[in-house]
Amino acid sequence: MASQLRSSWPEAGGSTSLQAADAICRTEAKSAGLARSESFKAWLSSSFGNARSRFAEDGPLYRPDGVRVIASLAGLASGVLDAPIELDATGAPTLYNEAWTGTRANGDASFACNDWTSSADQAGGITGLGSAAGHDWVEFDAASGCPNTGIHLYCIGDNDSLFLAGFE
Question: In tens digits, what is the pLDDT along the chain, a chain of 168 residues?
Fold first, then answer.
């Protein structure tokens, strides 16, 4: 992801690190016609804080198809969802839906590609699995290197929406 989160990635809008991830989420939300697209952020933890601390709103979260995923953002830290995320911004199922999180199942920050700034093969980060509704949604694996382009982002509106953003 870090290689994709540099300013050279078109959807990053010239930003880097967490700001680049947020720009990617906003671009995809806007392209999909989602309401309040400017409020979307990536569900990523870093040394600056856990993913939950990046959001102000705490309402229920819904996938683009209207299915409720969780009753509140605070509930995301519990590690158990009502339904898996597994859809992109348009509501289409994702084929390979591993997503960068840098977050443990209890909501705490973990190692994360040197705060999402490294593209080194030896740097890594925690990923979640979009098709999971249990703890694996947020802490599935330790990815084998930050340049891995097959891994997505979870994009959550600081409102009541969420989706998986692709990098293919």
Answer: 333 344 455 676 666 778 888 998 999 999 999 989 999 999 999 888 888 888 888 888 899 999 999 998 778 877 789 999 999 899 999 877 888 898 888 888 887 777 777 666 566 788 899 999 999 999 998 765 665 567 888 999 988 777 766 643
Q: Give the CATH number, domain containing residue 151.
A: 3.10.100.10
Asked if residue 2 belongs to a domain, the reply is: no
Assess if residue 74 is contained within a domain: yes
Please name every residue paired with 109 in a beta bridge, in sequence order, or none if there are none.
Answer: 103
Q: Decide: 31 and 89 in contact? Cβ < 8 Å.
A: yes
Domain residues for 151? 10-165
CA distance 149 to 145: 10
Q: Total domain count for the chain?
A: 1
Strands 152-157, 98-100: parallel, antiparallel or unpaired by DSSP? parallel
**Is 117 domain-assigned?**
yes
